[in-house]
Amino acid sequence: MSTMTGNSLHVKPSLAHSLLIVALVTAAILMIPLVAMQFTTEVVWTAIDFVAAGILLLLTGLVLTFTLRRLRTAKSRLMAAGLISLGFLYCWAEMAVGIFTNLGS
Hints:
Elements: H1 15-39, H2 47-70, H3 74-97
Helix pairs in contact: 1-2, 2-3
């Protein structure tokens, strides 16, 4: 669809639809360790681990969703997604093994 100026309109999915996708992707990712725990003793997660991972994944997904909805150019979206992803990776690595604050321990 185009406007009178010839620019195409970008149809954004509704916010509720985007939030549902974030929740479903988070649940799908959390299913990986849950299923792995059924087949091997090498994966041992407690309820706290699932809660922490769920919060981290949900927050990252929500921040990505709201940020990408506000930005207009592909360059700014790519930069924001990269920074948010780096923040996620930093938090994940820190929570997993304390890679940045447990130096020499």
